[in-house]
Design goal:
The protein is elongated. Helix 1 crosses helix 4. It is mostly helical and 203 residues long. The strands form 2 sheets. The chain has a 3-stranded parallel sheet with strand order 1-2-4. It has a two-stranded antiparallel sheet with strand order 3-5. The chain is built from 8 helices and 5 strands, in the order E-H-E-E-H-H-H-H-E-H-E-H-H.
Length: 203
């Protein structure tokens, strides 16, 4: 994100939750609009059992009055967990922070509007570059959301497989159209004058 774009799409697969959240928070405060997809593939450092204990201890924290009304609200979906991590790094109760949070959108899987844009990834924030080779990590879709009551952990994977099938079919159609165009161009009998005129119009 060295250049300022209208909207930046980030693929969350393989990134560490906290490191990606800090990078996203800084760019949001700078005015960048960001969409993070495949939040279920984000990783958290540490062993699975340790993450489970920490998250269940977090779920037990509540207010002295009715927690269903006053909170705190503990999110189970991976996208909302990432959203709350970013929110904790932004002064979201100020006007500047609230405007920054409005520039962020998070999704499980890859929804249709974002498939038309190429998603970015940051190797310096990935598990393979940041963590030690023997370090343990756990995907966010498995730990701790499934153990904490998230009922739709398998749905993003199902939708992702459907998206891949449609994407492959579109790519095959695109290759066939390019082959047909190349064949038509090679077999066309066009004189040099016509080619010059077509080149002037961008063809």
């Amino acid at each position: 994100m060295s250049t300022f774009d209208s909207v930046v799409v980030i693929d969350g697969k393989g990134h560490l939750l906290g490191r990606l959240a800090s990078t996203v928070a800084k760019q949001l405060l700078n005015g960048q609009k960001i969409v993070v997809v495949r939040c279920e593939a984000l990783n958290i450092s540490g062993e699975f059992f340790r993450a489970k204990l920490k998250y269940h201890a977090y779920l037990r924290k509540m207010t002295r009055f009715n927690p269903t009304r006053g909170g705190p609200f503990h999110f189970r979906a991976p996208s909302r967990i990432f959203y709350k991590a970013v929110r904790g790094m932004i002064p979201h109760k100020t006007a500047r922070g609230a405007a920054a949070m409005e520039r962020l959108k998070v999704f499980e899987g890859v929804p249709l509007p974002t498939t038309r844009r190429s998603a970015l990834s940051f190797p310096r924030l990935s598990v393979s570059c940041v963590s030690a080779p023997a370090a343990s990590t756990a995907p966010l879709a498995v730990s701790p959301t499934r153990l904490a009551g998230s009922t739709r952990t398998s749905l993003p994977g199902t939708l992702e497989e459907r998206r891949k099938v449609k994407s492959n079919a579109y790519y095959e159609r695109k290759k066939a159209a390019r082959r047909s165009l190349a064949k038509a161009e090679s077999g066309a009998n066009v004189d040099s004058k016509t080619k010059t005129q077509l080149a002037e119009y961008g063809y």
